[in-house]
Amino acid sequence: MSAPETPPSATYDSAFLKACRREPVPHTPVWFMRQAGRSLPEYRKVREGIPMLESCMRPELVTEITLQPVRRHNVDAAIYYSDIVVPLKAIGVDLDIRPGVGPVVENPIRTRADLAQLRDLTPEDVSYVTEAIGLLTRELGPTPLIGFAGAPFTLASYLVEGGPSRTYENAKAMMYGDPELWADLLDRLAEITAVFLKVQIEAGASAVQLFDSWAGALAPADYRRSVLPASAKVFEAVEGYGVPRIHFGVGCGELLKLMGEAGADVVGVDWRVPLDEAARRVGPGKALQGNLDPTVLFASTEAVEAKTREVLDSAEGLEGHVFNLGHGVMPSTDPDALTRLVEYVHTRTAR
User: Fold this and answer.
1) Could you give the CA distance from residue 66 to residue 195 in angstroms, rounded to a whole number?
2) Is 83 a catalytic residue?
3) Cα 81 off chain centre by
4) Annotation marks residue 158 as catalytic
C-alpha cells in the first residue's frame, strides 16, 4: 500500500483539519468520541437485534450510523463507526462483544505459543471497511472522516486479560515478568494496527485516532520502556500519508508528553487536566483535543455553557484546538444537549 501524494481536496480546508494542522480556523471545530451511536434513538433503532461486531461489518449500516450524528449535531467531523477489536476479529481471534461487559477473548494470550493467534492483517480481511468508507466519503463531501484503531497496549490488555480489567494484573505480569514476550506481542499488534489504519486512510479517511484507552494504568517509565515503541511504530507507519494523527488515552495526565512523543500531531486530553496545563506538559508543535467532562451534559444548559467556557478559555492561545469531550458520549446523554453544545462552541468561537 503506497501513500497518496496529496490530502483529499474536499476536506483539506475544513475547520477540523485546519485545527489539526495548527492553522487559523473560522471557529473551533467540534466532534465527540462515541458520537456515532450510543445516545441516539435512531442508532438504537437501526441496531436493534444486530450484534455489535456484526453491525461493524455491514457497510451500509456503518455508513448510516456514522452519518447520524453529523446530520443531527452539525459536528465538524465524522468518526468511523467500528470497534477497536474489529481487526482482531478479522484475523480470526475468537472474541465477542458481550452487552454490558465488552470484548471477551475465548483464549487469552499468556504464552509465546498463544501468539500464533495473531496472523498478519490484509486489506482483504476488512474489505467491508474499504466499502463503507467509500460510501461515507461520497455522502460526507467536505466533512472529514476520522478513522481509528485501538493502540497496541489497550489491545494487548484485552488479549492477555481475556476481557475488560480494572487492575491489568495478567498484562502487567507479562510486561514485567516476560518483557521479550510482551515486546513481541505489542510489535505484532502494532503491525496489525498499522495495516488497519492504512486501509482506512487509503479508502478516504482524512485523519486517524489511536485510542489507548487503558494507558492511564501505567507509570511514565513503564509507558516509555514497554508501550511507547509500539505506538510510535503505528504512527510512523502512516506518517507518509500526510493525514493528522490523534493520540488519546484516559487518565493519562502524567503521560501527555510521552503520548505526543510517540508521533501524534494532535494529543487528546481527558477532563482531568486543563488544556493550558496540558499544553505545557505536551510542549510546542502539537494541537490539543478535548476536554469537557462528559457528565457535565447531564447538568442544566447554563451549567454546560459555563463549563464549556472554562474549556475554551483554557484553550485560548493554543496552536490548535479541537473541541471534544474528555471521554466518550455516555449512553444516557440527551442528544439535544450535544446539538446545543456544538452550536454554542461554534457561535462563541466564530472568528
Assistant:
1) 21
2) yes
3) 11
4) yes
Digit-coded pLDDT (tens) for 85-122: 999 999 999 999 998 899 999 999 999 999 999 999 99
Task: Cite the beta strand spans of the chain per DSSP E.
Answer: 78-79, 95-98, 102-105, 145-150, 207-212, 245-249, 266-268, 287-292, 321-325
Write 157-162 long-range contacts (CB < 8 A, 24+).
Answer: 157/214, 158/85, 158/95, 158/103, 158/105, 159/88, 159/93, 159/105, 159/108, 159/109, 159/117, 159/185, 159/189, 160/108, 160/109, 160/110, 160/185, 161/105, 161/108, 162/104, 162/105, 162/108
Contact by Cβ (8 Å): 209, 243: no
Catalytic residue selected from 47, 76, 128, 168: 47
Q: Report the C-alpha gap between 19 and 312 in whole angstroms.
A: 14
Catalytic residue among 43, 80, 81, 158: 158
110 is catalytic: no
Instruction: Give the Cα separation of 323 and 316 in Å (integer).
Output: 12
pLDDT (tens digit per residue) in 15-57: 999 999 999 999 999 999 999 888 999 999 999 999 999 999 9
Q: Which of 22, 34, 188, 245 is catalytic?
A: 34
pLDDT in tens, 293-309: 999 999 999 999 999 99
CB distance 297 to 311 below 8 Å? no
Kind of pairing between the strands at 95-98 and 102-105: antiparallel
Find where cell 486512510 sits.
Answer: 201
Q: Which of 83, 96, 114, 293 is catalytic?
A: 83
Question: Three-state DSSP class for 178?
Answer: coil
Tell which residue, 339, 252, 326, has the closest CA to residue 296: 326
Question: Taking the CB of residue 168, how many other CB atoms lie within 10 A of it?
Answer: 19
- CA–CA dist 205, 266 (Å, integer): 16
Amino acid at 13: D
